[in-house]
Amino acid sequence: MANASSKNESQQDKIIRLLEEQLAHSNQQNKELSKQIEALTDQVRHLTKLLYGSKTEKSKYNSPDGQTSLFDDEPSFSEPEQTGEQSQQTISYTVVRKIQKKKRNDSLHDGIEIEAVHHHPENTTCDCCQVQMIEIGSTIVREEAEFIPARMKKIQHIEHAYECKNCKSDLSQKAQIKRGKAPQPPIQRSIAGPSVLAKVIHDKFSLYLPLYRQVKEWDRYGLSTNDKNLSNWVIRASHDWLLPIYEHMKHLMMAKSLMHVDETYAQIVNRSDGKSGQTNAYNWVFRSVPSQGPIITLFQSSLSRARSVLESFIEGFSGTIICDGYSAYDKIEGVAFANCLAHIRRYWLKVVSKNGQIGVKYCDDLYRLERKFKHLSPSKRRKKRQKYSKPIVKEFLDWLERSPFYGKNVLAKAADYTLNRANGLKAFLYDGRIEIDNNPAENAIRPSVIGRKNWIHSVSEAGAKANAICLSIAETAKANGVDFYRYLLKLLTDLPNLDIYQQPEILNRYMPWSKMIQAECGNKVK
Predict the structure, then answer these.
(1) Which of 103, 299, 462, 491 has the fewest CB atoms within 10 Å around its CB?
(2) Of residues 466, 460, 457, the one with CA closest to residue 270
(3) For the chain, how are helix, strand and coil distributed in percent, rounded to 5?
(4) Distance between CA atoms of 297 and 454, rounded to whole angstroms?
(5) Residue 86: pLDDT band by 50, 70, 90 thresholds?
(6) Domain count, the chain
C-alpha cells in the first residue's frame, strides 16, 4: 500500500509540474501577445491619425501666455516633413478677424505708368437754349490694370571700320584703321542674348515653369525654338558665367564656422554610374546662418546620399553643421553636428498617447523660449538658454532614461531617436549662433522639391548641375533682397566682358549683397 501511495504522489507531482510548466508557458505567450497587441494598437492609431488626423504640426493646446499656437509665426511647422505627394485632406478652422477695407488700386505697385482716359459727352450744347456748356467737374469712376504683352526685338550688332584717308594717300606709311567693338555675348554663335537667357532661367527656377512649356510662349513672342535649345542655353550660361559666382559663394561659405545642411531625392535619367534612371539621385542644400553675414544658399547635385558627397563638398570647412538625424552627418574630422529639434518633435507627434503629448510638450517649451530669445545677440541668447532651456533639456532626457520604452512601436522609436541624438540636441545650449532646428535648410530646399514636381527629372548630370547652380543663385538672391531676373541680366551682360578668370576678385562686386548689385537689382517694391 505504501508503494502504491508513493507512486500516486509521484504521478501527481509530475502532473502538477507539467501543469505549472504549461501555465508558465501560457503566461509567457500572453505577455508576448500583449506586447504585439500593444504594438499593433499603436500602429493602428498612428495610421488612423495619418489618414484622418490633422496634417499640421501646430500645437493643439493653449500656452500659458495665452497663445493658441506656438508656431503662428513659424510657417515651416505648418508643412509636413515629407517632400513627396501628400494627402489632400485638410481640416478647416474658422478664424474671426477684422478685415480692413483695401484702398482702391493698392494692388498695383508704386511707379506704375498711369494713363487717363477721359470721357466727355458727345454733345456739350445745352438742349434748352443751345448755348455751349462749361465743365464743372470730373469723377474717377474706376481704375483697371492693363497688360502690355512682351515683344521680341532683333538686335544687330554692327561694327564700323574707319580709315585715315590722309595716311592712305601717303605710300610711305601704312594707313591706320579703327574698328568699333561689339560687346561679347554670353553664348558664342547663339541668338540668345542676355535678356532671353535671363528670362528662360528666371521662369524655370523662380516660376518653376519647365522648358518644354516655355517653348509655346517664346513662339508667341516671335522666337521659334525647342526645349533642347533652351536646355543647352541654360547649361552653357550656367557653366560659363554663373558657375564662377557659385564657386565664389562656396569659397566664402566654407570660411564660415556654421551651416545648415539637408538633402532630398531627385532623378537623373542618364547616369554615369550605370544605374537605372529610376534610381534616386539627390540634391543637397547648404545654407549659412544670419549671424555670420549675408545668407548664402548652395545646392549640390549628386548621384548618391553617401557621406563622401558631404565630405567632398565641405572640404576645408571647420565648425558645426546643423542637420537632421541622417547617419551621414557624423564622424567627419573637424566637424561637430547639432541635431534638429523639429525632427525630434515630429517623432513624438506620431505617438498617439499621453507619453507622446509629454514629449511634444518638452519640445514646445523649448520653442516657446526660443521665440523669446529670437532677437537677442548670440552671447545673450546663450546665457538665456543656459538658464532656462538647459533644465528643460535635462528633464526631457532624464525622463526618457527612466522610462522603459522598448520594442518597435512608435513610442519606442521616438524615445530611441531622441536619446541617440542627445549630444547633438544639446549643442544649441552652448552656442547662441546655432539654431534650435534645421528648418532654414528645409525651407531652402523646397524650391528644389517644387521644381522636381514640375520638370520631373534631369536628362543628364550636366543638366542637374546647371539646375543646382541656378537654384543656388536664385535662392541666395532672394535671401538678400535681390530681384532674380535683374540680377541674371546684370551677370549675363557684364561677366562675358570682364576678365573674371584672371582677376577673380572682380566677383566680389557681383555678389548679391554688394553695394552695386543692391543698388541696381535690389527689390525696391515692398
Answers:
(1) 103
(2) 460
(3) 50, 10, 40
(4) 21
(5) very low
(6) 2
One domain for residues 329 and 201: yes
Picking from 475, 477, 416, the residue whose alpha carbon sits closest to that of residue 442 is 475
Q: At 132, is the secondary structure helix, strand, or coil? A: strand
Alpha-carbon distance 292 to 287, whole Å? Answer: 11
The reported pLDDT for the residue numbered 55 is 58
Residues 248 and 322 in one domain: yes
The CA-to-CA distance between both ends of the chain, in Å, stands at 109
Q: Indicate the residue type of 497.
A: N
pLDDT of 9 > 90? The answer is no
Binned at pLDDT 50, 70 and 90, residue 406 comes out as confident
pTM for the model:
0.77
- Asked if residue 405 is part of any domain, the answer here is yes
75 in a structural domain:
no
CB 414 within 8 A of CB 350: yes
- The domain in which residue 348 lies consists of 341-437
State mean pLDDT over 240-258.
Answer: 96
- Output the average pLDDT for the chain: 84
Residue 300 lies in a domain: yes
How is 341-402 classified by DSSP, letter by letter? HHHHHHHHHT--SHHHHHHHHHHHHHHHHHHHHTTS-HHHHHHHIIIIIHHHHHHHHHHHHH
| Mean pLDDT, residues 507-512 | 97
Rounded-to-integer distance, Cα 181 and Cα 161, Å? 10
Dihedral pair phi/psi, residue 166, rounded to 5° = -65, -45
Q: Transcribe 221-248 into DSSP letters.
A: HT----HHHHHHHHHHHIIIIIHHHHHH
* 210 and 327 inside one domain: yes
Using alpha carbons only, what angle is made at residue 185 by residues 500 and 199, rounded to the nearest 5 degrees? Answer: 100
- Measured CA to CA, the distance from residue 19 to residue 25 in angstroms comes to 10
**Whether 263 and 404 share a structural domain:** no
